[in-house]
């Protein structure tokens, strides 16, 4: 048996015995447990230090598993699943009553995703149960996209680890909910608004995707309320449609601090422009897949730069840019300047 198949087989036993497993998916690593075993799922909440009102996504390997956990699925919902599964796409559905109570935080709905990553798929299929899995990180920190970044913080908190190398996409799945005629994007991801519009005409981006949530405001997806992706270092996001203007503003803001106290997270093309500053390369502005692949790993590097301020170059919110800007604006706790 190949090493990876052996690992998946070991992980299956851990899942079936009520343990929790660090596993790769095509988006980010997850911490998985048998979604139907409340005691197992509770261990995930403890391992992450996750808020008790923030439900987990249930990962399935085939449509029979969907029928175990969701009901009254509409034609529109089937159309979306058909278009984007398996893949980085999560849909909030009506839950079968009494199922996966801890994973769904006692709610009436369930977030479901069928991952395309082979290791994740095989593990779910072999285990024979939906696997509840949030992103692999202590709550509030950037999600883990490779084991090197997360193994120290998580190895003693899980029962088994599968190494699947670097995840492909690098940011978490798109989360949507169908409300009436409309598809609402609750969390943007690799499946973009434009992708969804090719399947269903009316797509709306929830205002909390880029907006700041007021204290006590009711939100459609609890995860939106919490501090996210944030390094300890203060981060500031700067964007302009005009590339030159953006660079000038980044320099202007940088010059407010001593140069040794600043780190700039810049596109590859702009690194020369900031040559008097410490920089981290976020990838090419012409290749947002590369930027999304790198992003969480780079956010994790910020704190080791010994800076007081991290300034981050932004991008347009078209296409995959929306998912990138959604993560960055949270990393910056809404310290955002558009010029
Ligand atoms: O790509 C991903 O989605 C990764 C990998 C591991 O699959 N998982 C992930 O899980 O990002 P997590 O727990 O970090 O984020 C799940 C998001 C949270 O914002 C949560 O509030 C929302 O989905 N969510 C889950 N179930 C929900 C539900 N029933 N209703 C509304 N929002 C829900
Ligand atoms: Mg998460």
Give a structural overview:
The chain has 339 residues and is of the alpha/beta class. The protein is 30% helix and 20% strand. It has ten helices and 16 strands. It has helices at residues 3-16, 38-48, 63-69, 75-84, 118-127, 147-154, 193-197, 243-254, 288-301, 321-331; strands at 21-23, 30-34, 57-59, 70-71, 89-95, 109-113, 131-132, 160-161, 174-179, 182-187, 203-205, 234-239, 262-266, 278-281, 309-313, 336-338. The strands form two sheets. Strands 1, 2, 3, 4, 5, 6, 7, 8, 9, 10 and 11 form an eleven-stranded mixed β-sheet that branches. Helix 1 (3-16) crosses helix 5 (118-127). The longest helix is centred in the first third of the chain and has 14 residues, at 3-16. The relative contact order is 0.14. Bound molecules: threonylcarbamoyladenylate (TXA) and magnesium ion.
Structural class by sheet pairing and helices: alpha/beta
What share of the residues does DSSP label as strand, in percent? 15-25%
Which ligands, by name, code or SMILES, are bound?
A: threonylcarbamoyladenylate, magnesium ion
Shape: globular
Helix count, per DSSP?
Answer: 10
Query: What Rg do the Cα atoms give?
Result: 20 Å
Order of helices and strands: HEEHEHEHEEHEHEEEHEEHEEHEHE
The portion of residues assigned to helices is: 25-40%
Mean pLDDT: 95
How many beta-strand runs?
A: 16
Summarize the main sheet: 11 strands, mixed
Q: Give the N-to-C terminal Cα separation.
A: 57 Å
Sequence stretches where pLDDT stays below 50 over 5 or more residues: none
